[in-house]
From TrEMBL:
Highest taxon of source: Bacteria
Record protein name field: Two-component system, sensor histidine kinase YesM
InterPro entries documented for this protein: Bact_2-comp_sensor_kinase, HATPase_C_sf, HATPase_dom, His_kinase_dom, Sig_transdc_His_kin_internal
UniProt cross-references to PANTHER family, sorted A to Z: SENSOR HISTIDINE KINASE YPDA
Membrane-traversing stretches: 12-40, 285-307
Gene Ontology molecular-function annotations: phosphorelay sensor kinase activity
One Gene Ontology CC term in the entry: membrane
Domain Histidine kinase: start-end pairs: 392-598
Keywords from the named record: Kinase, Membrane, Transferase, Transmembrane, Transmembrane helix, Two-component regulatory system
Originating species: Butyrivibrio fibrisolvens
């Protein structure tokens, strides 16, 4: 049969197939298989996708109702009073909690909620009914820390254990209860009932698996995947906002059809990843497939004997090629040329030998490149370590200032203690509020006054100041971006009063004005004016300054007037802006125009 390998392999196969009559049988069988497969899988995928959409709709309805109920708890005055109270006895606490009927009414009437738990760090609250003391374990948990650090609610899957140590999982709505004018924190945990979800979502031929965000499985209709990673089932891409998936996978020895989709929870920055599974669709198709294959095999019995001798020879050559490919895939690139002939298989084998040799050379080059990269990364890590060791912890600096202040008080130096206390307040403001989106106008002005107090201690009568706020402006409720007033005051001292001989005055005025907008009606704005009676500047210097502030500072930590101008433009857009006017020998006036934003408790 050596002569048979001298011909083109395509001609070999075509000749045999035509002799055996396999072409028409193969075409008919292929069309039958493809059409049956396409129709069957398409139909079952549509059913599975439809079920997944129904699960999403039902889950959206349940989570929306749960969120709306949590709103009533979070903003209940009686709830705030109960959680903020410092009880003198456990009986007083029980009597107060017993008067709250809002929790029991929803817990009993809305069967989707398995339990409502409220954790508080108020040391005067003991465990009673739905109220629990936030133990150290609770406080250290990721979900508790996340809840007290943000105002928005979020969904998360949480495990719990019963008295027998059995672990259960629930899909939970977690949110902070904002205790107004209280030093304590409280977190609401609303657990959805697994039994209720199972009743609403169960279908006889389908199973549903749900996870929250990137967490493990929090709900499974057949209890098979609790606590496992969802990625063990489907290749979830958490970076996509609306992720969908359709595919198959062997589960418990059965090929199953899977459908994945994403549900964005109502008014909450959380996603629920829903996977629906049909365990039986593939097995049913396999039965149909086997039936079709049996029919085709019966049609191929006659040509089988004609193909047998050829297939044995052809198979031996393919096995040889496969063995060589397997060696290459296993990293063994030294292949002995052992397949002779002039057909495509022989050419493929020769190409494989050449390719294996080239891969071996490239691997050696890649290995050398990896060694060079590791050395570079090692050097970079050493540099980063040196940089980290040179940094000062700002909280350490604040605590050190407080220690120095106490020593000054002990020594009787009240003025030094006062200066350090004011400096500590300024540092605390920068640490706590510097990276916030919004702070109250009152806290910004307090920071400005602390800064001016320090400067007055330094320069005496050379620096005086006045702060005026219109009576119709409530500085506690009006909010602004942090650190937009103090840099202007600092600029006024450094560049306005620096060369002035005594009697320097800095005035800060807060008023309401109306701004004209080219695209809309007039807009109300907060006008913040910083005025100094310093040296002022010439018209030429003023023009240069107005151009220079339009370019952001290269230093990301700079809070000069250029950064204040660009921060306002970046966040608020037109017509909100900053203007500068100055007269040589008279002084400088800087006006900030920002939106009037009211913080509602």
């Amino acid at each position: 049969m050596r002569w048979f390998s001298k011909g083109n392999i395509q001609k070999q196969l075509l000749s045999i197939y035509m002799i055996a009559g396999l072409v028409p049988i193969g075409i008919i069988g292929t069309i039958l298989l493809v059409s049956t497969f396409s129709m069957f899988t398409g139909y079952n995928r549509n059913l599975l996708e439809s079920y997944g959409q129904r699960v999403s709709t039902t889950l959206f309805e349940i989570t929306t109702q749960a969120y709306n109920i949590s709103e009533k708890f979070a903003y209940s005055q009686s709830m705030w009073n109960t959680l903020s109270c410092e009880y003198t006895s456990f009986d007083q606490e029980k009597d107060t909690i017993d008067e709250i009927d809002i929790i029991d009414s929803y817990n009993y009437e809305y069967t989707a909620i398995e339990s409502i738990e409220i954790y508080s760090d108020n040391p005067y609250i003991q465990d009673y009914r739905q109220f629990y003391e936030a133990t150290d374990t609770i406080k250290d948990s990721q979900w508790y820390q996340k809840a007290i650090s943000r105002k928005a609610a979020f969904w998360e899957g949480l495990p719990r254990q019963d008295e027998n140590g059995t672990t259960y999982y629930n899909i939970c709505l977690i949110r902070q209860i904002p205790l107004v004018d209280s030093k304590y924190h409280a977190v609401l945990v609303m657990r959805l009932s697994d039994n209720y979800l199972r009743t609403r979502l169960r279908e006889q031929q389908y199973s549903v698996v749900i996870s929250v965000n990137e967490g493990s499985v929090s709900f499974c209709s057949d209890n098979s995947y609790y606590g496992q990673e969802l990625t063990d089932l489907i290749p979830v891409d958490y970076s996509k906002e609306h992720y969908t998936y359709q595919g198959t996978k062997r589960i418990n020895g059965r090929m199953s059809m899977l459908n994945g989709n994403t549900l964005s929870a109502y008014r909450v920055d959380s996603r629920l990843y829903i996977t629906t599974i049909n365990y039986n669709s593939i097995s049913r198709f396999i039965v149909i497939l086997v039936f079709i294959i049996i029919i085709l095999l019966l049609a191929l019995i006659v040509p089988y004997e004609i193909l047998r001798l050829f297939s044995r020879y052809f198979s031996d050559r393919v096995v040889t090629l496969k063995s060589a490919v397997h060696k290459v895939s296993s990293g063994e690139y030294d292949i002995v040329p052992s397949l002779e002939g002039e057909d495509e298989i022989s050419e493929a084998f020769s190409d494989l030998v050449i390719t294996a040799h080239e891969i071996k050379q490239k691997n050696e080059q890649m290995y050398k490149a990896q060694l060079d990269k590791k050395e570079l990364l090692s050097r970079q890590s050493q540099m980063e370590l040196k940089m980290l060791t040179s940094q000062i912890n700002p909280h350490f600096l604040y605590n050190t200032l407080e220690t120095i202040r106490m020593k000054a008080v002990t020594a009787g130096d009240r003025e030094v203690a006062k200066a350090i206390k004011i400096l500590g307040k300024m540092l605390r403001f920068v640490l706590d509020k510097g990276n916030s989106d919004e702070v109250s106008l009152a806290s910004s002005l307090d920071h400005v006054e602390n800064y001016l107090s320090i400067q007055k201690m330094r320069f005496g009568d050379k620096v005086g100041y006045e702060i005026h706020i219109d009576d119709d402006i409530d500085p506690e409720s009006v909010t602004t971006m942090p650190l937009i007033i103090q840099p202007l005051v600092e600029n006024a001292i450094q560049h306005g009063l620096r060369e002035k001989e005594g009697n320097g005055i800095i005035r800060v005025d807060i008023t309401k004005v109306m701004l004209d907008s080219p695209e809309e009606d007039s807009k109300s704005a907060l006008k913040i004016t910083v005025t100094d009676n310093g040296e002022g500047m010439s018209a030429e210097r003023l023009s240069e300054l107005k151009e220079s502030i339009k370019t952001p500072s290269d230093d990301g930590s700079s809070i000069g007037i250029s950064n204040v101008y660009n921060r306002i433009k970046l966040k608020y857009k037109d017509p909100y802006t900053m203007t500068i006017d100055s007269t040589k020998g008279v002084g400088t006036v800087i006006n900030l125009y920002v939106p009037i934003q009211i913080r509602h408790n």
